[in-house]
Structure formats: structure tokens, C-alpha cells
Write a structure and sequence with these properties.
This protein is an alpha/beta fold and 228 residues long. The protein has helices at 11-14, 21-38, 40-48, 66-74, 87-100, 137-150, 164-173, 180-191, 196-205; strands spanning 56-60, 79-84, 106-110, 123-129, 151-160, 211-216, 220-226. It has a single domain (11-226), classed as 3-Layer(aba) Sandwich (Rossmann fold). The chain contains 9 helices and 7 strands. The chain has a 7-stranded mixed β-sheet with strand order 3-2-1-4-5-7-6. Strand 4 (123-129), helix 6 and strand 5 (151-160) form a beta-alpha-beta unit. It binds S-adenosylmethionine. S-adenosylmethionine (SAM) binds at residues 12, 31-32, 35, 60-63, 67, 84-86, 89, 111, 114, 129-131, 134.
């Protein structure tokens, strides 16, 4: 069943006919809690802290923006831009930004298509959390190559390990978050996730050689692409 990446679409990808705005906002809030619980947030913060004080970070697929809203508070001398292909995501990110009365080191922009249009070497770091599993293998190869061109220093990718134990535990735990999208889409996300072998093949196809791929408990990957 988990021998290859699922092609099933998440409700989030199907668009706003599949969820209410309240459900969506609650889902993004819970997603940030999950990012904290799984260690994506802390781990990314500790890595970013090793970069210079004036580092610029582009978060691709920022969702409701909470990940960089919190990073921008911990790293006030950094500059953050969040983009997402979903208009619902950017509207919510802007609302969250107003409500949190955040530092002015942060902005959000709607990404109008799958194609990234940022200039080469225009941002120090590209960050992308829980986005790669939304892409097909071919889209992902292109994404890895393009983000590496846009980055001056590194691309940080956080995503899920497709594993039977991960689906088993997620099925048990996710009802705690009381959100239909979190349970439904979370299980699909794991099934769309990656094995180490798949990452290595994707990186080989993308002709990327300077990288670090690390597995962390529980069932998550951090892939860092380094600019030469
Ligand atoms: C699971 S959410 C993760 C949101 C956020 N990064 C987080 O960790 O809370 C995935 C997000 O990626 C966005 N997304 C999917 N494909 C994308 C693409 N090709 N370019 C930009 N954003 C994309 C979706 O709209 C969605 O908001």
C-alpha cells in the first residue's frame, strides 16, 4: 500500500469548495502546532540561527504564515517573505500578521502559478515546509532546481517520511486536533511523503550534489541544498 507515493489529492489542493474558511483557519493553526510538535519549527530555527543577522528568507507554500510569523519574532534582524499558490492562504497570513502586530520584517505575496518567478540569487535562504509532498516527482525535480537557483546560500526543505508506523500513529493522534482537514489531509500527506531512496533518486535526477538529507524522529525529513 505504501510502496509508492500516493497520487491522491488533499482537500486543501482541491480548493475552497471543499472546506469552510473557519475550518481552513483552524487547520492552519493546528498545522503550526503540529510543526512545533514534530520538531520542524525548532529545528529550522536552530539552523537559521547559524546564518548572519541580515539573512533574507523566502518561505514557499507558507500557508497561513504562522511558521514565519513566529520565526520573524525569534529572528527580528532577518527579512522574511511568505508566498503561497493559494489565495486563501495569503489572505489568512495577512490577517494573522495584522492580529499578531508583528515586526515589520515580514510580508506575504500570492504566487500566481506553479512557476516560481523570483530572480536568480535573489534571496539568501529558501524555506519550504510540508510543500514538496504536494508536488509530483517531475514538478519536484523542477522545484529543487529552481529554488536552488533563487537561493544565494541554501534551500531548507521539511517534509514527511512515508511509513506504515507514521500513518498508524497519525490515525490515533490526529483526532485530538479536532479538524477534518488535519486528519484527512494529514493521512494523505504521509502517503504522498518520501523514502530516503526516493529523495536520493530525485536529487540525482535534479543533478544536485551539495546537500544534506537528515531523518528525524518522528518520521520527518530535513533536506538542505547548499549553493556552491
Ligand atoms: C500543508 S500546507 C503547509 C503550510 C506551511 N508551510 C506550514 O508548514 O504550516 C502546504 C501549502 O503549500 C501550498 N502549495 C502547494 N503547492 C504549492 C506550489 N507549487 N507553490 C507554492 N505553494 C504551494 C498550499 O497551498 C499550502 O498552503
Amino acid at each position: 500500500m505504501l510502496t509508492e507515493r500516493s497520487k491522491e489529492k488533499e482537500l486543501l489542493d482541491l480548493g475552497s469548495a471543499y472546506y469552510s474558511q473557519n475550518e481552513y483557519a483552524h487547520c492552519q493553526k493546528m498545522l503550526f502546532k503540529i510543526n512545533q510538535l514534530l520538531g520542524f519549527f525548532g529545528n529550522t530555527y536552530r539552523l537559521l540561527k547559524t546564518f548572519p543577522a541580515n539573512t533574507s528568507v523566502l518561505d514557499i507554500g507558507c500557508g497561513g504564515g504562522l511558521f514565519i510569523l513566529h520565526l520573524s519574532q525569534y529572528l527580528p534582524t532577518f527579512q522574511f517573505i511568505g508566498t503561497d499558490i493559494s489565495a486563501d492562504a495569503i489572505t489568512l497570513a495577512q490577517q494573522n500578521y495584522q492580529e499578531k502586530n508583528s515586526h515589520n520584517n515580514l510580508s506575504f505575496q500570492l504566487q500566481h502559478s506553479n512557476t516560481l518567478t523570483q530572480n536568480e540569487n535573489s534571496m539568501d535562504v529558501i524555506l519550504s515546509t510540508l510543500v514538496c509532498h504536494h508536488l509530483t516527482d517531475d514538478e519536484l525535480i523542477h522545484f529543487l532546481q529552481t529554488t536552488l537557483k533563487i537561493a544565494r546560500k541554501a534551500v531548507i526543505i521539511n517534509d514527511l517520511h512515508r511509513h506504515g508506523l507514521a500513518t498508524f500513529f497519525y490515525r490515533l493522534i490526529s483526532p485530538v486536533f479536532r479538524n477534518r482537514l488535519i486528519t484527512h489531509d494529514g493521512l494523505i500527506s504521509i502517503r504522498r511523503g518520501f523514502t530516503r531512496k526516493e529523495w536520493l533518486l530525485l536529487l540525482q535526477k535534479a543533478d544536485i550534489k551539495h546537500y544534506q538529507l537528515k531523518w528525524f524522529f518522528p518520521f520527518r525529513w530535513r533536506l538542505v541544498l547548499w549553493k556552491k
